[in-house]
Write a structure and sequence with these properties.
10 helices, single chain, 4-stranded parallel sheet, alpha/beta
Length: 264
């Protein structure tokens, strides 16, 4: 028996007006890997998350919650937050009654089923403390054991989509960092901490001796698709007894008003 069709919104933290080459390529990739009967729609935010740091994560996270509320109202079956840092992920789950899957949480949990010691390659050193806190929040400190930075900006990663030499340089750095993690930390699974390099390398076979290289976007997509089926079977996307207790309608309204006013 085939599953009913489902629609999943992919909430990117990039700006459609600035990062369209990335978003178009992402939409094509999601369409290619989607399970039968599943459609994805990629949406961004403006301005995108280019000012790396906690304040930008907070601002983009709040905007993403507003986008997730809109997606739920439009009848989407789930939202995949396509930003590895998972800013405001827990808050988003309290705002809607559909599954909200975090790129970072979903891919790290799935990676732990593929190996015993996981290594991440992130874009910038500014994210090192953030990832450390993420890993601890998800109870994965003994499993996700190393994080190394590429030391590039999001704009540099996006620019590499049309520049083979730039991609090769980023790939070489990724592999070098991964090899170091294998040697120094004993990791046996490596993945990028984010979708930019994951999409850059989606059609390439990146090899690291001693470790499996996995695509976090693919892992998160499969988790999002599974979450729809699980929600349909259980009747709820999450437990409402504690961490993800439903926000009041007034709380949601106040957040939406805040976002609307800041856009004037």
């Amino acid at each position: 028996m085939s599953s009913p069709p489902s629609r999943i919104m992919y909430q990117s933290f990039t700006d459609p007006a600035v990062h369209q080459p990335y978003l178009s390529r992402l939409q094509a990739y999601l369409t290619e890997i989607a399970a039968p009967g599943v459609t994805y729609e990629v949406r961004g935010i403006s301005p995108g998350d280019t000012q790396l740091g906690r304040l930008s994560e907070l601002r983009c996270g709040v905007q993403s919650v507003a986008g997730i509320v809109a997606a739920a109202e439009e009848g989407f079956d789930a939202v995949l937050v396509g930003h590895f840092q998972d800013a405001c992920l827990y808050e988003a789950r309290t705002a809607v009654d559909i599954p909200v899957i975090g790129h970072g949480e979903a891919s790290m949990l799935q990676a732990c089923m593929l190996g015993g010691r996981i290594g991440l390659v992130t874009l910038d050193p500014v994210y090192l403390s953030w990832h450390s806190e993420q890993i601890a929040r998800y109870g994965l400190s003994s499993r996700v054991v190393d994080v190394r930075p590429l030391r590039i900006t999001p704009d540099q990663a996006v620019a590499a989509y049309g520049d083979d030499a730039a991609y090769q340089s980023i790939k070489d750095t990724f592999v070098s960092l991964a090899v170091t993690m294998v040697r120094e930390s004993g990791v046996d699974v490596v993945m990028s901490a984010g979708g930019l390099f994951a999409l850059l390398s989606a059609r390439d076979h990146v090899e690291v001796p001693g470790a499996l290289v996995v695509n976090p976007t693919l892992l998160a997509v499969r988790q999002a698709e599974a979450s729809v089926a699980i929600t349909r079977a259980m009747g709820t996307p999450v437990s409402r007894a504690g961490t993800f207790a439903m926000a009041t309608p007034q709380a949601v309204k106040e957040l939406l008003t805040l976002v609307k006013e800041t856009r004037r």
